[in-house]
Amino acid sequence: MKAVALTRYLPIDNPEALVDVDLPKPSPTGHDILVKVEAISVNPVDYKVRAPKDKVESAPRVLGWDAAGVVAAVGPEVTLFKTGDTVFYAGDITRPGSNSEFQLVDERIVGRKPASLDFAHAAALPLTAITAWEALFARLNVSAEGKDAGKSVLIFGGAGGVGSIGIQLAKQLAKLTVIATASRPASSQWAKSLGADHVVDHFGDIAAQLQAIGIDGVDYVLIFNDTDANFPAAAQALKPQGGIATIVENDKPIPVELLKAKSAALHWEFMFTRSMFKTPDMIEQHKLLNEVARLVDAGTLRTTVGEVLGPINAANVRRAHRLLEEGRAIGKLVLSGF
What we know:
The structure is a single chain. By secondary structure, the protein is an alpha/beta fold. The chain has two domains: 2-125 and 275-336, Medium-chain alcohol dehydrogenases, catalytic domain (Quinone Oxidoreductase, Chain A, domain 1, Alpha-Beta Complex); 129-268, Rossmann fold. The protein has ten helices and 16 strands. The protein has helices spanning 44-50, 119-123, 126-139, 161-173, 185-193, 206-212, 227-237, 273-277, 283-297, 314-325, and strands spanning 2-9, 19-22, 32-42, 53-62, 67-74, 86-89, 102-106, 110-112, 152-156, 177-182, 198-201, 218-223, 238-246, 265-268, 305-308, 332-336. The mean pLDDT is 97. Homotetramer. It comes from Paraburkholderia acidisoli. Belongs to the zinc-containing alcohol dehydrogenase family. Quinone oxidoreductase subfamily.
């Protein structure tokens, strides 16, 4: 089968950073389904895993953690899917990724593809939808039924992949007042089109900008971009007894002491936790993705595709990595077909 892989961890401008390879087609066992991959999207986790380091893989390593496709075969313990079903999923970071013609994935972290979307537009959603959903509803305990309507959330990185779906979940389901950060007119307009009530300059004085629009503090903060740079502003903007959820690893100590006087909480969200640790509630991600599909088909949520870069090959995947590393992408970058 065709795949895009690496054996060395190189700068993205090196043509050998990601290469086209042929690999054996795997067979499913246990709870695994074998998916014929039709489309993928690329996320920051892809280039972070690929980041240059002194390591050489003995066999080609396939990255990629977002896909939509068709079930080609099922393992003997599979009960949720059958051959021919169309699915979408983010996968498991400890296993070979989705940048290949066929991929094995545990059925319990797979959802049924939204019927109203083609494969490319469906592939944009899984990782970011799971991440934003878990951060907002599982970590911060915001009601997905609108019981916290009228409260406010500040979303750092509103025009990114996770921010793009996070704005929609916060507005459409939670009924919150949404303030998103953005740094360019195009990204600001994107965030507003997704439902943000206000957009503030990502690189400006956040507290001053909030006060200028009549907001003295927010009930929740979602950090979807640069925890190190944004945590002090997040802590300052947060109301007493509020909560911050971040998805971005820190490079230096986080000044959590800023939260003490406010009796505020800091939560980490990592959507791979369930699959990495084989938690007893792994199937919750299957349910979550099915609910996202239902909401998309109902018109409540929309896909977050920013650009379709062409077919799945090493050159296009390298281009996607480069765009994400440069921080210029709006929405999700998608590739479709081999």
